[in-house]
Amino acid sequence: MDKIEEVLTTLRRLIRATDLHSRQLVKTAGLTAPQLLLLQAIREHGEVTIGALAKEISLSQATVTTILDRLEKRGLVFRERSAEDKRKVHAYLTEKGMEIIRDAPTPLQDHFVKQFRDLREWEQSMIISSLQRVALMMDAEHIDASPVLDVGDLDRKDERNLPDDNAADDHGSGSDH
To answer: Where are the annotated segments for Disordered (predicted)?
Structure first.
């Protein structure tokens, strides 16, 4: 295999690994990766505002709100206005939400983050530089993306668990992250 084939095969493996993990997550937990990350962030922080959640998981506030809407419809979270500051809304896990994340598999990026942090600084820099160059070569350096290993729109609904209302809203609504 020549070097070009090696690069393209490796890129395809990365895409497939992300896709397969995303499908497995939906199959086993009924959640997308962004939904799971959001639930975990709520669990870790307890009483937390939507803005703080958005910052924590590096998604736009609009995307987080859309994901929370879907999780709330499923009875996994609820939101309440702050008693001290009515402009703030806090998100909380329900008991059902706690059960779901307790049994959910580890997100793919958690495995990656652990291994990446174990690398030496020069190795981390080489990987970052190489991936940035690949993005440039694929004319992808200006595509807006968040640090969530998942495929598709980040605020899509899990078609398996939610009613098919507003299906047209799910295609293209993830452009703000």
So the answer is: 153-177
In a domain, 125, yes or no: yes
Identity of residue 34: P
Q: Is residue 10 part of a domain?
A: yes
Secondary structure string (H, E, C) spanning the chain: CCHHHHHHHHHHHHHHHHHHHHHHHHHHHCCCHHHHHHHHHHHHHCCEEHHHHHHHHCCCHHHHHHHHHHHHHCCCEEEEECCCCCCCEEEEECHHHHHHHHHCCCCHHHHHHHHHHCCCHHHHHHHHHHHHHHHHHCCCCCCCCCCCCCCCCCCCCCCCCCCCCCHHHHCCHHHHC
Q: Summarize pLDDT for 112-159 with one digit per residue, the tens.
A: 889 999 999 999 999 999 999 999 999 988 887 767 766 655 555 554
Tell me how many domains the chain contains: 1
Entry pTM: 0.72
